[in-house]
Automatic annotation (TrEMBL):
Keywords: DNA-binding, Transcription, Transcription regulation. It comes from Rhodocytophaga rosea. It holds the Pfam family Peripla_BP_1. This is LacI family transcriptional regulator. It comes from the Bacteria. One of its GO terms (molecular function) is transcription cis-regulatory region binding. Residues 6-60 form the HTH lacI-type domain.
Length: 346
């Protein structure tokens, strides 16, 4: 059976009216007889009529649609950001298209082209771990389409950004480990292509410096954020002649993976080795022991990013402001780093 989407022509034929009358009624023009308007709207609902937003955008130069490009959906972080952004967008009368790049630069480039083809009015972006070239996003700037980066941002583009204080969060996490008596603190870092990886690494290094602990190269490993590599590197750290007595992980999925390896080795937390993550992922309070982590205001990241985007859209391009909004983090201490804390929960 051939697919057919109801059009204005179908409604006009059914009611023996002109296309222009039907069009005016559907777009809310006042110069249509109330009875005629009711008949048109009733039939449109009955026939599942959907306005052709793409055609409408060609006429109005607005699609009333925002795009969101995220690198992954494996953890609860990006879905929660999207929920926050969608809440603000919906209140302002915008639809949202979400695309997922699966940590692939090529997919991200393809996704950005889909957003352009759908004539989005603005776009929110968090880049993949592979992204080092940003030409595909600079196209939006050239076309006068506002863009806001969040979480994983592009430093070389002068556009609004929403981030958390990654440096401060990492510093406090490592300081906490030092204050519990840990001295050989390892760091499983993210890829250095990501600004968040570099900032969290700097927070780790500065905490060690502040407390005069040595910087031990073999205890810092930068990796590609895959589960397989996390397992390999944690095993490697635990099998060193002098293994670490604590681990600060780039994010909670890495920390949780590390905890599984630690348990499999028959070691206890935090006595043999303490673990701290970053992000306060949903699972971090459910595992045993509970994971100490740096909590980010995840939905607020999405809300702030969407609001910044809407603010840009209300201004002339010449009035756009490339502000960076930095949100605060909070250290949540659980059983993986402190024996005085409950094994799970806040």
């Amino acid at each position: 059976m051939k697919r057919h989407q109801t059009t204005i022509i179908d409604i006009a034929k059914e009611l023996n009216l002109s296309k222009s009358t039907v069009s005016r009624a559907l777009t809310g023009h006042s110069n249509v007889n109330p009875e005629t308007r009711k008949a048109i709207l009733d039939l449109a609902e009955k026939m599942d009529y959907q306005r052709n937003m793409l055609a409408l955008s060609l006429v109005t130069s607005r699609s009333n649609t925002l795009g969101i490009v995220v690198p992954e959906f494996l953890t609860s972080f990006f879905p929660q950001v999207v929920i926050g952004a969608q809440e603000i967008a919906s209140k302002a009368g915008y639809n949202v298209i979400v695309s997922h790049s699966n940590e692939s630069y090529e997919t991200e480039v393809a996704n950005s082209k889909v957003m352009l083809a759908n004539r989005v009015d603005g776009i929110l972006v968090s880049v993949t771990k592979e992204t080092r070239n940003f030409d595909h996003f600079k196209v939006f700037q050239r076309k006068g389409i506002p863009i806001v980066f969040f979480n994983r941002v592009c430093d070389e583009m002068s556009v609004p950004k929403v981030i958390v204080d990654d440096y401060e969060g990492a510093f406090r996490a490592v300081e906490h480990l030092i204050q519990t008596g840990k001295k050989r603190i390892a760091h499983l870092a993210g890829p250095d292509s990501l600004l968040i990886s570099r900032k969290r690494l700097n927070g780790y290094l500065d905490a060690l410096r502040k407390y005069n602990l040595p910087l031990i190269d073999e205890l810092v490993i930068s990796y590609d954020l895959t589960v397989e590599k996390a397992k390999i590197y944690v095993k490697h750290l635990l099998e060193l002649p002098e293994p670490p007595d604590a681990l600060f992980a780039i994010n909670d999925p890495t920390a949780i993976e590390a905890m599984q390896v630690i348990k499999a080795k028959g070691l206890t937390m935090p006595e043999d080795i303490a673990v701290v993550g970053f992000s306060n992922d949903y699972a971090s309070s459910l595992i045993e022991p509970g994971l100490t982590t740096v909590a980010q205001p995840i939905r607020e990241i999405g809300k702030n990013a969407a609001q910044l985007l809407l603010d840009q859209m209300d201004r002339e391009v010449s009035d756009w402001k490339a502000m960076t909004k930095i949100l605060k983090t909070e250290l949540i201490i659980r059983g993986s780093s402190s024996r005085n804390m409950p094994t799970s929960g806040h």
